[in-house]
Amino acid sequence: MDLLWSGSRQALALLAGADREIWGILWLSLEVSGSATLISLALGVPAGAALALARFRGRGLVVSAVNTGMGLPPVVVGLFVTLVLWRSGPFGDLEILYTPAAIVAAQAVIAAPIVTGITLAAVGQVPREFRLQLLALGASRTQMVWLVLREARLPMLAAVMAGFGGIISEIGASMMVGGNIKGQTRTLTTAMVLETGKGNFEVAIALALLLLVLIFLVNWLLTAIQQRHAR
Predict the structure, then answer these.
(1) What is the pTM (predicted TM-score) of this model?
(2) Which residues, 6+ apart, have CB-to-CB distance to 35 below 8 Å?
(3) Taking all residues of the chain, what is their mean pLDDT, rounded to a whole number?
(4) Which residues, 6+ apart, have CB-to-CB distance to 33 below 8 Å?
(5) What share of the chain is helix, strand, coil (3-state, %, to 5)?
(6) Architecture of 2-230 per CATH?
(7) Measured CA distances, 107 to 101, 122, 195 (Å)
(8) Model confidence at 229: pLDDT above 70
(9) Residue 158, Cβ neighbours under 10 Å: how many?
(10) Exposure b/e, 57-96, CB count within 10 A at least 16 = b
């Protein structure tokens, strides 16, 4: 307990002193995880809506694959993305391995199935009669899909929270594709592991506090938006 208390006090001192390295790590984490969340939304929302509204042979298999992807281990994603971005891999010419772009790619792969699955569930809760009524009133299929998405927008905010929360706190993929390079690819989670291994518990605790506060603030903001629209 003494170590935890002492580390917490030193951590607060580091945060209050605006330690440049710690705040740089925070900004990089926000940048890569925020970008990955946006990419996962761009991919996952249309895919989830299509799966919820379409009926085709093999749909059950695709839905099962999406549900499996929602629990995909980050280290597996890290290995796959590393192989794809390796010099001899199909996208090796991009030379983005061990850069923030590689972390964004890996985190987007992790978050996309989560967003797709939650969108699928949210759109699936919209009554079928509502969709049929829209079409009967003369709405085009595109207009119908847009209105259904608007109807499901509040549950879909959970997709944003789950997607961001799932990648801001992961470490396996970020470590594998980013390399945990100081000043370049070091995120809150990878830096926390490094500092703990070095015995710098005050820095690790400071990073942990930042991570917890960041996750809380993002979820608090999205929950406030969700509740306000619900009222």
Answers:
(1) 0.85
(2) 104, 108
(3) 84
(4) 107, 164, 167, 168, 187
(5) 80, 0, 20
(6) Orthogonal Bundle (1.10)
(7) 10, 23, 22
(8) no
(9) 18
(10) eeeeebbeebeebbebebeebbbbbbebbeeeeeeeeeeb
